[in-house]
Amino acid sequence: MTLFLNGDALTIEDIKQLLHQDLKIEITEEALERVKKSRSVVERIINDKETIYGITTGFGLFSDVRIDSTQYNDLQVNLIRSHACGMGEPFSEEVSLVMMILRLNTLLKGNSGVTLELVDQLKYFINERIIPVIPQQGSLGASGDLAPLSHLALALIGEGLVYFKNEEVDSRYVLNELGRAPLHLQAKEGLALINGTQAMTAQGVINYIEAEDLGYQAEWIAALTHQALNGIVDAYDHRVHAVRNSQEQVDVAARMRDWLADSKLTTRQAEIRVQDAYSLRCIPQIHGASYQVFNYVKEKLEFEMNASNDNPLIFDEDGETTVISGGNFHGQPIAFALDHLKLGVSELANVSERRVERLVNPQLNNGLPAFLSPEPGLQSGAMIMQYAAASLVSENKTLAHPASVDSIPSSANQEDHVSMGTIASRHGYQMIENARRVIAIECIIALQAVELKGVNQLSPKTRDKYDEFRNIVPSIKQDRQFHKDIEAVAQYLKDSAYH
């Protein structure tokens, strides 16, 4: 299968398919024509010796410095080398691959003035899965993700490191092995590669995909907990949720009813108690609110995935060409969205930990052994798993602080307000990893609790999940190193993403 890029219609679903099915990409002829047309404008600027930012001038504070015409190409290479100041652990290969796809897609809008050779080099790297090694730290999220995207550009010109066939190697070595020439940057092309929000947006896309998937996984795990605690199903009645005017809440309630259908462990109002605690009764309201956040973030990400966020931008309308210096590289809209995503993820973990507490606390767990211990007193059982969940939830609360409220001026105060959106994206992913482990802990404990209640009484759908996950984590017959179980379940949950 092939994914066609045209600069206007890329979706998160396209990205999911590309990652899961290993799709190749092609470029529409219409998009290639736009690229050629915008490049002709750059060539005219060079020939007419006009003063245009980043083409015939320096960058940032040096925007008033005129560059000699013999050095236009050197200017672009110097830009990439000097701006490749990324630090820390690299982005995942998935994120770096998505980063290339997003950068290519924005260039295809025809506002950036790049050559067909650059477009073809990006397409080649994507299709051959030559993935740049891109350090995560170093971007302010305005003037573009300059440092991360410079490392991407280094790979294209044969000077950076790449992942290729499960190895980390020099880009030039890979290009030599494949008989492919490094890209020779021409006027404006270095700037066109790094002025944009593709690092924060690429990580944001992966965050969204995994966060949405985590939400769905949290529902069936919560359904296990609900049954272990003989929860009341009346709270999920469609009528309750229809009058709240939240489709996401309605949808969660419907899925919870589906997960719990035909269970012999659920109860009705007043059979055991009149109302459940909020962590059970309000699952549709709490989880539904997270899906509201996710839907908002998806919309903003897909806008940005198909946006021109270069500078300067080239416009050709009715035969008249204009080059305008603006600020579409500023990451504020994505920074806000990705900070918002952190809240939705945080609450999935917060309420999961509260359900864990109800499962292990003998004052709250409806007759189950304290900490589900096989020998209370001699063996601690799930006691410290709740501690671990509480620790992760608390850590997420610190990471949830919005990165987007911070700004530090740069480039001698020329760039005096920045978004910090890439920090928001990175912290968001850390929170997803933490939340997944919290939900894994709830899964392990809920599996044990329903085993004690009687797995034959589970709803058919959750019984299938019980059987599936008992292949990952065995029953707790005695104390063991539970960190291995937590990591095994968390990894299994992660590996099932994108479905």
How would you summarize what this structure contains?
Helices cover 55% and strands 7% of the residues. It is mainly α.
Topology:
Elements: E1 2-5, H1 12-21, E2 24-27, H2 29-48, H3 72-83, E3 87-90, H4 93-107, H5 116-128, E4 131-132, E5 135-137, H6 146-156, E6 161-164, E7 167-170, H7 171-178, H8 189-194, H9 198-228, H10 238-242, H11 247-260, H12 278-281, H13 283-305, E8 313-317, E9 320-324, H14 332-360, H15 383-399, H16 421-453, H17 460-470, H18 482-495
Parallel strand pairs: 1-2
Antiparallel strand pairs: 3-5, 4-6, 6-7, 8-9
Helix pairs in contact: 3-6, 4-5, 4-9, 9-11, 9-13, 9-14, 9-16, 11-13, 13-14, 14-15, 14-16, 15-16, 16-18
Description:
The protein is mainly alpha-helical and 499 residues long. It has two domains: 2-195, Fumarase/aspartase (N-terminal domain) (Fumarase C, Chain B, domain 1, Orthogonal Bundle), CATH 1.10.275; 204-498, Fumarase/aspartase (Central domain) (Fumarase C, Chain A, domain 2, Up-down Bundle), CATH 1.20.200. It contains 18 helices and nine strands. The strands form four sheets. A three-stranded antiparallel beta sheet has the order 4-6-7. Strands 1-2 form a two-stranded parallel sheet. Helix 1 (12-21) links the parallel strand 1 and strand 2. It is elongated and about 85 Å long. The two termini are 17 Å apart. The model has no long low-confidence stretch (mean pLDDT 93).
